[in-house]
Amino acid sequence: MAAGAAAEWGDERSQLKGTDEEDTSAMQEESNLVTPTIAFIGSGEIGSVLARLSVAAGLNTVMSNSRGPETLSGLIAGLGDRARAATPADAARAGGLVVVAVPLHRHDRLPADALAGKTVIDTMNYYPHRDGRIVTLDQGRLTSSELLQSHLPDSTVVKALHNLDYVRLFTTARPAGSPERSALPVSGDDPAAKAEVIDYMDVIGYDAVDAGPLADSWRHEPGTPGYVKPYVADYPDGLRGEGVRRWFREAPSTPVPVSVLKKLLDSAVRGPAGGTPIPGYVKGLRPDRA
Fold it and tell me: How many Å apart are CA 97 and CA 117, to the nearest integer?
């Protein structure tokens, strides 16, 4: 599924179906999460997977994308009675928590007014080959989540649920206490908002490691030790393009417990934003959006 992946979710779901039925069955009861309605701005790969995990955990979901609610009929049908479609602004107003799952270069199109007062889960990653060069990030003046926070001054941004590929994010969710349960990093400046996001992660099948404030969220951005690779058994370096997609679909997963993730985060060294070198650096830089 690419940018318009919501309409194709039925195909992706059929490919993933059966890998998680036993493990998510323990999460089918009503959740006692304080905010039982989760809204999504962005209904592609990550948004669709998190919505399915949310519904499985007994949460109501409100889905939205840039193309309009009418384009989400297939996704909503697959999610069932706990899901409905809305515009991004309406979804923002409806959610107790709001998950942002759009390409980073579209962050400045998010409805800041509708998101005021909300806790926003930032699942976006900076990929320069897709997003273009963003000066603020390339110069290390902000992390990508701080960039989002600057666009949403009246919201509380928490970085989470972004360091797994969408297939593994779905198939490795486990009930609390499972020996195969993985931990994922969380960064944010507001302790109460982080606690709320950590509760949500627990409900959908993941432990959490508090990775500090948004300024330190670079520790789990692309290219760092805790990003994707630890969750994939025997990850082969050198894969590109379609080879990566095939590998992620077929490769076995490996649990990453809290203790291991903490060590990976501690070992991170800040490098070029986006996890790749910056060829020419100045050439091709996009206008600064901060």
Answer: 10
Give me the sheet containing 119-122, strands edge to edge: 83-85, 60-64, 37-41, 97-100, 119-122, 156-160, 183-188, 207-210
- Give the tens place of pLDDT for each residue, 48-98: 999 999 999 999 999 999 999 999 999 999 999 999 999 999 999 999 999
Question: What are the Cα distances from residue 47, in Å, to 37, 153, 166, 254?
Answer: 14, 23, 9, 23
- What is the β-pairing status of strands 183-188 and 156-160? antiparallel
What is the CB neighbour count within 10 angstroms for residue 278? 17
Spell out the residues 6+ positions from residue 259 whose beta carbon is closer than 8 angstroms to its own.
none
pLDDT of residue 243: 73
pTM for the whole structure: 0.83
Going by C-alpha positions, the residue among 170, 150, 86 that lies closest to residue 289 is 150
- The span from the first CA to the last CA of the chain, in angstroms, equals 29
- The count of other CB atoms within 10 Å of the CB of residue 211 is 25
Question: Which stretches in the chain have pLDDT values below 70?
Answer: 1-35, 235-237, 239, 248, 276-290
Q: Are strands 156-160 and 83-85 parallel, antiparallel or unpaired?
A: unpaired
Tell me the two tokens of residue 180. 């195969």
φ and ψ of 207, to 5 deg: -80, 170
As given in the structure block, the two tokens for residue 186 are 């969380």
* C-alpha–C-alpha distance, residues 220 and 161, integer Å: 10
